[in-house]
UniProtKB/TrEMBL annotation:
Coiled coil: none annotated. This is Rrf2 family transcriptional regulator. It comes from Marinicauda pacifica. The keyword Iron does not apply. Keywords: DNA-binding. NCBIfam families: rrf2_super (TIGR00738). The keyword DNA-binding applies. GO terms for molecular function: DNA binding; DNA-binding transcription factor activity. Pfam families: Rrf2. GO terms for cellular component: cytosol. InterPro entries: Tscrpt_reg_Rrf2, WH-like_DNA-bd_sf, WH_DNA-bd_sf.
Length: 144
């Protein structure tokens, strides 16, 4: 299973927001900490906000913060919300042209694998993957 860069960045934004001192951060800070394009992160933040994971605050002193406690943000839900599709093979796509699809068992196996993958992600919250610690704080260049 491979996540898109969009979903990867979404998880990174959420981790950053969970660890940020005071809980408020800015896109520019996140882009700098991860070495990611600010423009790309703006799209990611918009999606996270629309899906209810982030709250954005406009104006002077604005920024972004988690919309829910980190312990209530389930990683599986974030992945489902941010991924367009979990198509693992052509047989999952609407334009399927594989001639053996009607008799092939691969689609069922791949579907069960995706469900198992998501079930595992459903056991983890943002709090689990972003526990505040010195190493994470240092790596993200927060100054206390």
């Amino acid at each position: 299973m491979r996540l898109t860069a969009h979903t990867d960045y979404a998880l990174r934004v959420l981790i950053y927001a969970a660890v940020a001192p005071g809980g408020l951060c800015r896109i520019e800070e996140i882009a700098s900490a991860y070495g990611i394009s600010k423009n790309h992160l703006m799209k990611v933040v918009r999606g996270l906000s629309e899906k209810g994971f982030l709250k954005t605050l406009r104006g002077r002193g604005g920024g972004l913060r988690l919309a829910l406690p980190a312990s209530e943000i389930v990683v599986g839900n974030v992945v489902r919300a941010m991924e367009d599709s979990f198509s693992q093979a052509e047989c999952f796509r609407p334009e399927n042209r594989c001639v053996i699809t009607p008799a092939c068992g691969l689609k069922g196996v791949l579907n069960r694998a995706v469900q198992a993958y998501l079930a595992e992600l459903d056991t983890v919250t943002l709090a689990d993957i972003s526990r505040k610690n010195e190493a994470l704080t240092e790596l993200l260049s927060f100054s206390d």
